[in-house]
Design brief:
Helix 1 packs across helix 13. The protein has 13 helices and 13 strands. The chain has a 6-stranded mixed β-sheet, with helices on both faces. It is of the alpha/beta class. 37% of the residues lie in helices and 21% in strands.
């Protein structure tokens, strides 16, 4: 079954020619909620419309009893009210587990309920996990937003994977939707799988982490606190206490201190960072093999881009392809593009892309309903 071809194209054309409107993006954490207003600007005949952020505001979550109150405050801002473009959709990226378009926040008493918000504010609302939003931002990135580590051709419409070491370790897979002609993001909790160490140092690290935590998940050694744990592990092992790195005084360090010292050439911090990057590379390779990510493997998050000086030594890429072990799938991993994402606003870009998708869906449905031919179909 298919739609009449001429009707399909005319409906899409009318949808793409829809008037100016606005969308809202949200980046909502336990401490702050950043909301942005994006206005659609028609680029002219034959060109895709562009959405430009015209206003944003960040609110402390403690200032409002509910997210509804926060969103209303944003809509009441003079810069928002003065916009002549009606709000058509909102995509809200939240730090928490989302189920049925709803997320009870963990570090505040807010509940972000897309259905309830849609009923109250009369525009479409999608609630996304924050890393799901990062996933939707990946296809919209420019070449200048990426640093290629394995610079091989990207296969169009092939699966992609994205991971992001930061406060935790986010992970998601992207699969092409031929019906929508875009990628669908499938978030997951693979970061909580058991860590698979490589080599005796990582095995010793696993034993140390297990003794401390009871179990060693990948995330425990592949995020900010993971880097801190690796550093503490190196200090605890006499094997690594060379004359130039004997601990003195308070030896506990936070991840930003460790990364800064590594970039300054400190031997122990550099060793901790290199172990950390090797673990990230190995997990990126495992994710790539799970879905044959010839569309690209993307490392986002706040830590790795700050460590590009160490990344460029090859430690992450060598671990990605498991070069030292002569892995039998090394040849396959070498065909998969690997990038570091340097654009820190990739999650906001993803929220924008998803809100735009909501508007397009609404416009297409409305255009089909208004078409003189109605919803008629014919068999092939």
């Amino acid at each position: 079954m298919r739609l009449h071809a001429h009707r399909h194209h005319s409906v899409r054309a009318r949808a793409e020619a829809a008037g100016t409107h606005s969308i809202i993006t949200g980046d909502i954490g336990g401490t702050n909620a950043r909301l942005g207003l994006w206005k659609r600007l028609d680029a002219g005949p034959g060109k895709a419309a562009q959405h430009t952020e015209v206003y944003s505001e960040t609110y402390p979550t403690t200032a409002f009893n509910t997210f509804e109150d926060c969103l209303q405050a944003f809509l009441d801002e003079s810069e928002v009210r003065s916009s002549a473009a009606a709000v058509r959709a909102a995509a809200l990226a939240v730090a928490g587990a989302v189920e049925n378009n709803r997320c009870p926040m963990t570090n505040t008493n807010w509940v972000i309920d897309g259905k309830q918000l849609q009923q109250q504010f009369k525009f479409r609302v999608a609630v996304l996990n924050d890393f799901e939003a990062v996933g939707y931002g990946i296809p919209a990135l420019a070449a200048s937003d990426l640093v290629a580590l394995n610079d091989v051709p990207m296969v169009a419409e092939a699966p992609k994977v994205v991971m992001g070491p930061g406060t935790g370790l986010g992970a998601a897979q992207l699969f092409w939707d031929s019906g929508y002609q875009g990628y669908k993001v499938v978030p997951g909790e693979g970061a909580h799988a058991t860590f698979a160490p490589r080599g005796w140092r990582q095995m010793a690290l696993t034993a140390y982490a297990t003794a401390r935590l009871g179990h060693c998940e990948i995330e425990e050694v592949a995020c900010g606190r993971g880097l801190e744990l690796i550093y503490e592990f190196l200090l605890s092992d006499p094997t690594f206490r060379r004359p130039d790195n004997k601990p003195t005084g308070n030896t506990r360090k936070l991840a930003p201190e460790i990364t800064a010292e590594a970039l300054e050439g400190d031997a122990l911090a550099t060793q901790a960072v290199d172990i950390f990057l090797a673990i990230i590379g190995a997990e990126a390779g495992a994710m790539a093999l799970r879905c044959l990510a010839r569309g690209g493997v993307f490392i986002a998050g706040g830590i790795v881009p700050r460590l590009m000086e160490r990344v460029k030594t090859g430690v992450l890429l060598d671990s990605f392809t498991n070069k030292t072990a002569r892995d039998r799938f090394q040849y396959l991993l070498q065909t998969m593009p690997l990038y570091v994402v340097t654009n820190t606003k990739v999650g906001i870009i993803g929220s924008r892309e998803y809100a735009m998708r909501l508007v397009r869906e609404q416009e297409l449905l409305q255009s089909y309903a208004e078409s003189p031919a109605g919803p008629s179909m014919q068999s092939e």
